[in-house]
Amino acid sequence: MRHSIFFRIYASLVLLCVVVALIAYLLVQGVNYKRAQAYREEMAAGVFYIITQGIARQTSAQTRQNWLDDASILLNLPLKLVPNDSIEFSRREQELLEHEKSVVRYNSDKIQADIYTKVPNENLLLATRVDKAGEQQIKAMAVFMLDDLVYYPGQEQKRLKEIRQHFPYPISIQPVSKLGLDIDQLSRIRRKEVIMLLRDGASSTGANISVVSPTGNGNEVLVMGPIPMFNWLPFHLFASVTLIGLLLISLGVYSLILPLERKIRLVRNGLNQVRTGNLDARVQVDGEDEIDTLALSFNGMAEHIKRLIEAQRELTRAVSHELRTPVARVRFGVEMLADTDDYESRLEQQLMIDKDIEALNTLIDEILTYAKLEQGTPSLNFEEVALYKLVRQVAEETRNLGLEPQVLTLEPDHELLVSAEKLYLHRVMQNLAGNAMRYANRKIRISGGVENGKAYICVEDDGPGIPEKDREKIFEPFSRLDDSRTRAAGSAGGYGLGLSIVSRIAFWFGGHISVDQSPDLGGARFKMSWPVKRPRT
């Protein structure tokens, strides 16, 4: 499961989405931290500018303290004056103070903010600590604004223009009739009360509030706002984070698909090379997923095709050579039949022709069998086979040939059943027994059984054996050994296909064929082993 390409992609996508979501969360948190800090500074700057202007107008220490106490009560905040050099400020904070803005130091653990604003023309700071901002503080802003305008009779609009530079929202004096207030709100205005107007987030400007305060002129009111409320996820931030997230996911998906695309391209290149005739083309395998499995299958297919073509060429060459001798003998025999009238001679030639035709039949049968086993997966019907019966049957068939070597057997347990294609297993034992009879001096031995969890059949002889350097070569088609074993056999040698057929059958059985020296008889020992039980597919 862990090597499944789909599992890896899906798991990687889930992990990618989790990572992107975490990045998006951290990004929103980081951006909002900056936005919230800027919002606090903007909201505090205008209000505390008006307050410090009021402090600066006081002519004596006592009146200043009284004014400060009244302001503290009105705001419900502890206001105090501290020396400028008693607080350490960063360069940015110093620049804010020099530009008549407020420094806000927010403590997220205690959920409170310390606010510092420079008093004009003095080495003093107005300091306060805010832990919440409610209706009382908002309404107090209008009171401070009206108090400031009292010092500019007849120049209220000019003063408002100056003040607006310190506020992030509009401030104006408007006729009360233009505000569209309801009866309750109008009655409160007549009672000289400060009212607040709330606009929800469905409006184009988002959620905001406006502060409306009556002035000395009963037909006009001071309007502060709309004051935007802080939006933790405005559309532009949402859109930016979404686009960044989609970009990261796209890059992540591309990084997942790129290796697969490269592997598919390698497989395609390999296919194109094979199509153009390069049978040595192979695809590099560097993993264990489905595409790597496909690459392995392609490499196996290319190797098999190459082997088939080479085998076909070798088979064509060898067949033309092997057929030439018996055909020439048949032709010679036919010519002899035409040239002689002697009955005995004609009978002898006829028998020789029959033997040559039988040899041709045998050769053709072996060629067809080998070609069938070599060119592709043969139709195998595996069944439970009693191995002892097959050993006994082949031994009897070998004895019935009437040849001189004695045929011995070591029959396995009669209860032993092995999984095999009976026809092909019989062919293996026949070929091995026939090969042993050709090279044995006095006896051969046929046996079978189970060893190390594998079924096996074994055929041994007491002939000259096979040199170790030639033990791999004898399983090649049409191979013959120019050694004492071949010479000892005289003209009894086969066509070099019997052991090749045995080797291919062992391959399709999922087994192995080997040859070594018989420890008991001294000659060659051929042993084929394969799984006792064939795995279910």
Automatic annotation (TrEMBL):
Keywords for this protein: ATP-binding, Cell membrane, Kinase, Membrane, Nucleotide-binding, Phosphoprotein, Transferase, Transmembrane, Transmembrane helix
Pfam families: HAMP, HATPase_c, HisKA
Cellular component per GO, a single term: plasma membrane
SMART domains attached to this UniProt entry: HAMP, HATPase_c, HisKA
Membrane topology: Multi-pass membrane protein
Domain HAMP, residue spans: 258-310
Gene Ontology terms for molecular function: ATP binding; phosphorelay sensor kinase activity
Boundaries of every Histidine kinase domain copy: 318-534
Transmembrane segments: 6-28, 235-258
Top EC category: transferase
InterPro entries listed in its UniProt record: 2C_sensor_his_kinase (IPR050980), HAMP_dom (IPR003660), HATPase_C_sf (IPR036890), HATPase_dom (IPR003594), His_kinase_dom (IPR005467), HisK_dim/P_dom (IPR003661), HisK_dim/P_sf (IPR036097), Sig_transdc_His_kin-like_C (IPR004358)
SUPFAM superfamilies: ATPase domain of HSP90 chaperone/DNA topoisomerase II/histidine kinase (SSF55874), HAMP domain-like (SSF158472), Homodimeric domain of signal transducing histidine kinase (SSF47384)
Protein name according to UniProt: histidine kinase
Species of provenance: Alkanindiges illinoisensis
